[in-house]
């Protein structure tokens, strides 16, 4: 999907939910929509500063918090970076396949994985709060190369 269409979709979703898709939020969203791999907050800030020289780190973090809350973006903890979500649902449990060679991040949704993880964790009295699972390896293109 083109980034233009993704932005349209995000704006519509916000309208439906009564959330404000402000210019900064839209700009950060579009940086992520135009990238195939995850982007760190610092790099996002550098990109934003080309449009608005006054942008500061809290600007980026507030925009990212909003986008995560809306389910548009996932944080990739192991890369300390952010990636656009391809599913556009409200908050959901996702699994991320991260290529250690090219940095490509592919999202899959397999609810059984989370259900089983939660069941297993429960046996230890552990409550899973951050349910995104990250798997590292090689993407199709890299493993065929
Ligand atoms: Zn997602
Ligand atoms: Zn790869």
From TrEMBL:
InterPro entries per UniProt: FUR, Fur_C, WH-like_DNA-bd_sf, WH_DNA-bd_sf
Subcellular location: Cytoplasm
Cofactor(s) listed: Zn(2+)
Residues that bind Zn(2+): 99, 102, 139, 142
Cofactor: record remark: Binds 1 zinc ion per subunit.
Protein's UniProt keywords contain Transcription: yes
A Pfam family that the UniProt record links to this protein: FUR
Keyword entries, A-Z: Cytoplasm, DNA-binding, Iron, Metal-binding, Repressor, Transcription, Transcription regulation, Zinc
Molecular function terms, GO-annotated: DNA-binding transcription factor activity; transcription cis-regulatory region binding; zinc ion binding
Domain of life assignment: Bacteria
Gene Ontology CC annotations of this record: cytosol
GO biological process: negative regulation of DNA-templated transcription; regulation of secondary metabolite biosynthetic process
Major subcellular location class: cytoplasm
Subunit annotation: Homodimer.
PANTHER family from the UniProt entry: ZINC UPTAKE REGULATION PROTEIN
Assigned protein family: Belongs to the Fur family.
Protein name (record): Ferric uptake regulation protein
Organism annotation: Catenovulum maritimum
């Amino acid at each position: 999907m083109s980034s233009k269409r993704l932005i349209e979709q995000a704006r519509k979703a916000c309208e439906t939910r009564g959330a404000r898709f402000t210019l900064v939020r839209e700009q950060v969203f579009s940086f992520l929509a135009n990238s195939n791999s995850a982007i760190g907050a610092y790099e996002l800030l550098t990109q934003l500063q080309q449009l608005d020289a006054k942008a500061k780190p809290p600007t980026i973090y507030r925009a990212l918090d909003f986008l995560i809350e809306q389910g548009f973006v996932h944080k990739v903890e192991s890369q300390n970076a952010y990636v656009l979500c391809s599913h556009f649902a409200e908050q959901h449990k996702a699994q991320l396949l991260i290529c250690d060679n090219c940095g490509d991040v592919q999202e899959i949704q397999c609810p059984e994985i989370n259900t089983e993880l939660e069941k297993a964790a429960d046996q230890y009295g552990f409550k899973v709060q951050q349910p995104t699972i990250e798997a590292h390896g090689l993407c199709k293109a890299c493993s065929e190369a």
